[in-house]
Write a structure and sequence with these properties.
The structure is a single chain. By secondary structure, the chain is of the alpha/beta class. It is built from 31 helices and 34 strands. Helix 21 packs antiparallel against helix 31 and helix 22 runs parallel beside helix 25.
Amino acid sequence: MRNQYNLKKSMGLLIRVLCVVSLGSILLSAQHIKPSLWAKGDSEECHNTVEKKLSQMSLEEQVGQLIMPVVYPSQDPQKIKEVEQMLQSIHAGGILFQKGKAYDQYSMTHRLQSSSEIGYLISADNEWGFYMRLRDAIRYPRNWGLGTASTSLVEQYGRDMAEQCKLLGVQVSFAPVLDVNNNPHNPVIGTRSFGSDPHLVAIQGEAYARGLESKGVMAVAKHFPGHGNTNKDSHKTLPTIYGSRATLDRVELFPFKEFIKNGHSGIMVAHLVVPALEKRGVPASQSKKITTQLLQEELGFKGLIFTDGLAMAGAKNAAGRSIGVESLLAGNDVLLGPIDPQQTYNDILDAVSKGVLSAQQIKDKCRKVLTAKWILFDGNLKLPYKEILDKKTFYKQLHREPLCKNADKLWRASITEIKTIQNGNTLEKIKQHRVGILHVNGENSSAEQAFSESLQELEFNPAVTYKIETNRKLPSLSQLKKKFDSCEYLLVNVYDKKGSKAQRLVSGLAQDHTLYFTLFNTPFPFSEWKHSLSKAQTVLLANEDCEEAGRAVVAQLLGLEDSFLITRPASRPSKAPYLEAICSPEIGFDQRFAKVDSIAEEGLRIGAYPGCQIAVIYKGNLVYNRSFGQLYRGTDAPDVNNTTLYDIASITKSVATVPAIMKLVEKKKLCLNDSIAQYIPELRGSSVAAITIQELLLHESGLPATINFYEKLVDSTSLPDGHLFYYQAGEGLKQIDRSVWVPDGFRLSEKYLSPKYKKDYTKQFSSLYYIADSFSTEVLDCIKKQVPTHPSKTVYSDVGYILLGLIIERVAHKPLDQFVEEILIQPLSLHHFLYTPLRRFSVSQIAPSQENSFLRGKVWGLVDDENAACLGGVAGNASVFANAFDLAKVGLLLLDKGWWGKTAVLDEKVTINFLHTTGNGGKRNLGFVKGYPGNPNIPFEASPQTFGHTGFTGTCFWVDPVKDIVFVFLSNRTYPSRSNTLLQTNRIRPRLLEAFYSVL
């Protein structure tokens, strides 16, 4: 563990720094050192092979070798073909892979390499492992957390990354970051740097590069001549690094000098202005003074020189000249990620024809690229063919146990001890005492979720857990003290820099408790906390907010040994006894399920949805779990991954409300034949009082399909003739749907809505308003006035399930979401299945539902259904958010008649009764749609015993007990507009299930 912030530096660190300074003085005069990885390039065999190939290459082919376009991993044959054609048309020398999935990149690389005459140099951004771009790879700590880890551990990190590079077919790693982060306001480097001490950055960066290159992978240091001391981001603009040449030599340039002196192979040149080095105001990447005269001639670097990404705003030049040509003239060898590779290729050829660039310059740079390939391809210019691994084998190798264990060591080392645990008083030793936990701003925190789940997993049960958010009204110190009055020890976790608003409260709590404090954030706001924590027993800095950091802090606080796993494959269910534990977050057999992939991609192509998830459990095993597309359509949109949350809409009825009713029936607290008035006395004497629980479950209550409770939220004085909805166009009306209009100037009432969270307005209705807690009374009043029609006839009704949700709360004596948490979410360890997801997840982890709801604006992270929103996002008809995998687990629970492994989560007899009791017409069970003949939502292959539900947002789940299949499909077809019906008209959902039936 580290103690980077103590006033006294550790002797070990001091000795290492002195060693580097000493080494620097010894090697100061050593010039023109050829990178050691290139030692093989001095051989006659390499020289002859490269020169022979050069003599056979046209100018066009040589130019192409200097271009490395950006490519996004895909398994779509059409996309791969397009990439292949683009690469071949410019004779590209390499590829920079960006965001995607690991197996997609691996298989795509295999295909592209097999079709190339000269192998492609495959590169990747690996600053914190492949996870930086591939979210199903191992995540490593940001460099800042490793600033004073042992160099042997950092070197092993480099070796482990080389192993993963070899598996994925990557030869060039754009790491380490050698920027010295000496500006706390830097918006782009921050924790990407090893620290603010240039000597420390040099030590750790060199150790990482040494490990990487010892296994034959090129390390590319970045961002020369140093991007740390700026407050601007070169992705968005052109930053300037101020400081004299003497300062640059002492700070920014120092780590790069050490990197070069130690014989490493690649350097990336940044897009930033350095007046002390170049007076013309051009980016370093386009400056001959910086890239040639300083880097190559003065510092003696002879390895490959890459530009930073040429699509970045900082790469633009004021004169409007070709960025690619200017970069080559400056001295770069490889042009990374040009916006238009074909145009860049044409510009270079044009520059040669006009004498701006010489053919000899192109040939010399091409020679360096070919030499690198010969070395990195083990003595060839094309990689030998290897059989492609199947997906399951690939992911097992990517997450090999030794790799995960070494990653765990790095995570443990990344936790900074600002104040050490005194007298060995770890939580493990004090767990017999009453321990309280205060989470500050943990609502959307992955670290908070992992921290809490880890304590639960370890059976460490705090006496009191309390959460506060500084963007809402904070409790008083006296209220907090009363909350934790019975606790001797107190854990305080702060998850973002805004948490400093709570420091007065934390300081007050430290007076009466033994305090263990952890900041899950960058170290830069820590100075604000120093005074408040003077009496804290232990202070830890976790440096970032992520699952691994949460688990690493638990390991530190409890003093756990290495057996406690910090690095865990994303899809591995921690407590799913019946499911086979498969490490790969993406499971499936490409050839067997190619039709499934094709249909899912078709939905994306025709615009049926921006993205989707599909999960299938077959005979108790997860056989398919894939994600497609983006959260929304756009070049900057995040990709959907297997942990993305979707609003499952009416599926909530079957997988949350119905299990809750089952549990109450099991406990004999509720009877299906009871009238609803027995549980909601306010309904007595009304026309709806005699409706039974069973009639609500079967949609045979005679209640209407819906009631627009939200109309009560509209100020009636803003409606010209008292109506909110119109069904034809007219003056002063605006259209909100294909055949619906509302008054252009209608207003929301202040009676039930508040723009701020406050007493009696604690439930979120939209991104702009909180709704009165008392509004549920208005909902009941509306229902009470209904007169049931056609009793016993099946009329699908949301109203009935809203009533069921309210009944559950009355009988269970707790909120619906809490009850479902107890009886379902916790027993099944459903980490991505919950109500009101913004409590725990950020919007970037949730698929949006609507772009512009007429009533609520953008709906993202809040329930799509307006009536559920009127109840604060917790209702019986809709409101659960989930990922496909967790929803499939609930399907498996129902398939197994309430059993989860050897545990009866739901009573077997009750579950069977719900699944076998059929309503009028034979199309519904108690809470489920049946697989009746002619059901348009399932294929004809589905057995009559099939049961499930669909959701308005573009979702479905189906369980076929005869075929032993659980099928889940989730999408946000309603984004940006609910009027999109392409999912239904193209029968995407039943066709997907049909494709699974055809191969299983």
